[in-house]
Design brief:
The complex is a heterodimer of chains A (370) and B (155). With 370 residues, chain A is of the alpha+beta class. Chain A has eight helices and 15 strands. Chain A has an eight-stranded mixed sheet. In chain A, strands 1, 2, 5, 6, 7, 8 and 9 form a seven-stranded mixed sheet that branches. In chain A, a hairpin with a 3-residue loop joins strand 12 and strand 13. In chain A, helix 4 crosses helix 5 and helix 5 crosses helix 6. By secondary structure, chain B is of the alpha+beta class. In chain B, strand 3 and strand 4 form a beta hairpin. The longest helix of chain B has 17 residues. The chains are: A alpha+beta (370), B alpha+beta (155).
């Protein structure tokens, strides 16, 4: 049933009241859009060979599997939320993909940012990955356009093999581009996925990856009622199939039986840009899910206050703690180089002066001590 | 291949009083000691490897503690053996004209020798201790059964 005009919230509320669903309908940034505009804010192609009429056929079984994969049975916490880990918020701001089917770039970028922060236990890490680079350069090279969408596994391969620059080197604007907006110095300012693996159909693995690395990208089937989600644990109640979508899972809750996701429809949508979705719903575990194991950085960290210095009995094994970066190993190529860097950083620390650190995969390659 | 000499050690406290607990081997007598009697000895490959590697087990990993006041800051957490001391202050240092022989005076503990197995590690530890002494910033350190400081966090 195509919906060619704004969604009817009154009817949706009535449908919800009749159901056992435990979520709220509200007027969102998506509600007033027409169907073609809403579909443009998705962006994952249909699963090849899968009949849309059968999408919901395995819902109950999938929910049972996800519920049965208890996090505590695999040594993970029963609940996890990247925004509340021991009182620390490792999340990054919610973005808005606008009128372009680039959700994969947003779901993968949000994952890279969350993993980069959480694996370093550094909530202040400056990491804002360029969705434009990911979608308009890497995606475009693979044939992706705003109207076709893309796949998370392909985006992760590009993020691992080539890397993704930061937002300030290619700011995102919705609408197909030819990659010409990319800063020529992007190879010196980028994040790389160190490795990833498929987690599709593996809810226990999803929980393990989320609680170990912070976030994972996942795809889901979107129905018309989802656009008007305003809080609670989402279950599809009414409305036709709209398309495939990619989001970033940042948590789960076994007691509530749900995943916690960060969407890319702006902070005004849903629960401050996030939503909870019940286990087994909308093929969230079965569409395409990937697990990222780490993120390396190659970039300048300007204006760092050195809060700590460290060494031990191993030659050329000196580390410095930058206030907004955390621990970095000083270049270990030679003892003299190492000691020269230590000397400069020691002086800066003693004087309370900021330094600029150029990092390549956890190692300091260059220093400015102001 | 340089070897470490361990005879010299500090004999004064930071206030300038001669330390009574360390009476043997005053710096002057050590420095002007008798001519060495060492001579080359045949050693096995394993012994050579142990000497080159400094003897003690290597801890190649990086730091695990976080600066005090940092979100998620933890107390000493390391897979290494040894005794951890946190919240320490260095009030004096001592060195002598012997290879890799430098000591630090830690308030409440007394003199501690810095690890002397390798030039690079030794110099880095001396630099960290020197900064701690100059700035009055606290350190956390690991000392091993041989009495030497093997690892320093300077906050």
């Amino acid at each position: 049933m195509p919906v060619s005009k704004a969604l009817d919230l009154t009817r949706l509320r009535t449908d919800l009241e009749k159901s056992a669903a435990d979520w709220q309908v509200t007027y969102t940034s998506m509600t007033a859009l027409e169907e073609d505009e809403r579909v443009l804010r998705l962006g994952v192609p249909p699963t090849p060979g899968l009949d849309p009429a059968t999408l919901e056929s395995g819902r109950d079984a999938a929910a049972a599997v996800a519920k049965g994969a208890r996090a505590e049975a695999i040594g993970a916490p029963a609940a996890f939320d990247l925004r509340q880990v021991g009182g620390v918020d490792y999340g990054t701001p919610v973005r808005d993909q606008g009128a372009c089917g680039s959700c994969v770039a947003f779901g993968v970028s949000a994952t890279i940012e969350g993993v980069a922060r959480f694996t370093r236990r550094n909530a202040a890490l400056a990491v804002d990955v360029s969705e434009a680079h990911l979608f308009y350069c890497h995606g475009r090279a693979a044939g992706a356009r705003c109207t076709t969408g893309w796949w998370p596994d392909q985006a992760l391969n590009a993020s691992r093999d080539t890397g993704v620059t930061f937002e300030d080197y290619y700011p995102y604007v919705a609408g197909d581009q030819d990659c010409s907006g990319l800063n020529a110095d992007w190879t010196n300012h980028l994040a790389k996925v160190t490795s990833w693996q498929p987690l599709t159909g593996n809810p226990a693995g999803m929980k393990e990856y989320i609680s170990s690395f912070g976030a994972i990208p996942a795809c889901l089937d979107v129905y018309q009622d989802f656009f008007s989600y305003g809080g609670g644990v989402y279950r599809h109640v009414s409305g036709s199939y709209a398309g495939g979508h990619c989001v970033c899972l940042i948590g789960y809750d076994d007691a509530q039986g749900c995943w916690i996701a960060k969407n890319s429809w702006g902070p005004g949508w849903g629960d401050a840009g996030h939503f909870r979705i019940a286990y087994g719903e909308c093929r969230i575990e079965a569409y395409q899910v990937c697990g990222v194991q780490g993120v390396s950085l190659r970039t300048w960290h300007p204006d760092q206050q050195i809060l700590g210095l460290w060494s031990n009995e191993v030659d050329a094994n000196v580390w410095a703690y930058g206030a907004n970066r955390g621990w970095l190993k000083l270049d270990g190529g030679s003892v003299p180089t190492n000691l020269a860097m230590l000397s400069e950083l020691s002086a800066a620390k003693a004087g309370g002066r900021p330094v600029g650190l150029f990092e390549d995969n956890g190692s300091v390659q260059q220093i400015y001590a102001w | 291949m340089a070897t470490s000499r361990t005879r010299g050690e500090p004999t004064l406290t930071p206030s300038g009083r001669r330390r009574t607990a360390v009476a043997a081997g005053a710096a002057t007598s050590t420095a002007a000691g008798a001519a060495g009697t060492s001579e080359p000895k045949a050693i096995s490959d394993e012994q050579l490897r142990a000497m080159v590697e400094g003897g003690a087990p290597q801890v190649v990993a990086g730091p695990t503690m976080l600066p005090p006041g940092t979100a998620g800051a933890e107390a000493a957490a390391s897979a290494a053996t040894g005794t951890w001391r946190s919240g320490m202050t260095v009030t004096a240092m001592w060195a002598i004209n012997e290879p890799r022989n430098a000591w630090i005076y830690v308030t409440g503990l007394g003199w501690r020798r810095l690890y002397n197995g390798k030039d690079g590690a030794f110099m880095a530890l001396v630099a960290l201790a020197g900064q701690a002494r100059q700035t009055g910033r606290q350190i956390a350190f690991r000392e091993e059964a041989d009495g030497m400081v093997y690892e320093i966090y300077l906050w």
